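FORM 7B: Structural annotation worksheet

SECTION A. Query
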Amino acid sequence: MAHATPLWKTRDYMLLWSGQVVSTLGSTASSIVLPLLILALTNSPAAAGVASALRAAPYLIFSLPVGALIDRWDRKRVMIICDVWRAIAVLTVPVAVWLDALTIWQIYLVAFVEGSLFVFFNIAEVAALPRVVPTALLPQAAAQNEAAVGAVHIVGPSIGTFLYQTLGKSAPFLADAISYVMSVVSLLLIKTEFRLAKAAPSTPLRVEIVEGLRWLWHKPLIRYMAFLTGGLNLVNAAVPLIVIVLAKEMGARDVEIGLIFSIGGIGGIIGSLIGGRVQKRFSFGQVIIAVIWLEALLFPLYALVPQFFLLGAIYALIYTMSPIYNVVQFSYRLSLIPDALQGRVNSTFRLIAFGFMPLGAAISGFLLEWIGTVPTILAFTLWYLVFAILTTLNRHVRNARAFTHVAAD
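SECTION B. Predicted structure
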């Protein structure tokens, strides 16, 4: 039976959502200028790629034990502690800038620390979402989350590069630290418990980790979607640096680079607005297969545009696909996982899904430095095409049941 309360009247979800909108805005503003700051310090795309890789690497290291621990711990407390320490970590960058002591090694350390805390926060947040949103409203919540991310990616890059160019290198990072504090406030106001039970663990941590791995491995569709999402994220991790280097080669200034990413963010809004309708009109397999092929065919256009603002148009077209994909696979996955396994299964899924990101970030930096932008784009296009073919041939994707049937089980 459908839940009668509209999503926007679900108080605790709206608090969680609004806090993360602000936090994501701050993170977007600072993350877009981080490669610019590194390029200004080192003039090395490879160094910028290493920083992005270090931020994503903690998922490979921590996600499995963190998933099991999240199912034991108070998820809300974990999220609050992570936000506090992320604010402190990010704040060290403007302090070092003011003291004229910033080095690439400090940036690497901050990237790794922030990425490690993000692992804890993100797995706890995903595990908590079904506690504040009824199952029937999970697709709507996923769409609203994607709409917020799309809006943030419209304004965030321009805000970040504007602060960076007009107020100084430290300004975007100071704004990011403040956004984490605001996220803490929103979490403190939430009344819902973020887990069903608080019973003491009765099994060793290793056994609980294996339980999450086994659950995912015995669900062929979810297992494949984890690897597919990882393959797509390898490219997604490479795109920002590719676009930045391309834009600089075309003569774009820092503020104009921010505008390129803001134009791209419009695609996220469009995708989130139509994601729910697409999900209702087409099958799971039709949506996933179509999205992968469209992204694979659009990606090589980066190498063909004659003017840097057109990079934003290509970015927007591809970014339109991302919310549609996320709404479909995210809500489908959450509806299947038992609450007691949310942390462990989602951490396993995200280990695979996010585990490719350090590789993509690092590869993009070294390829850009060694072989140039156009060959780098062609290499990632080939990667896209491989996954498009594999997804088309996968019978579990093609024959997946509709979400309404899954939610009713």
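SECTION C. Observations
Confidence is low (pLDDT under 50) at residues 403-409. The longest helix spans residues 11-42.

SECTION D. Sign-off
Analyst initials: ____
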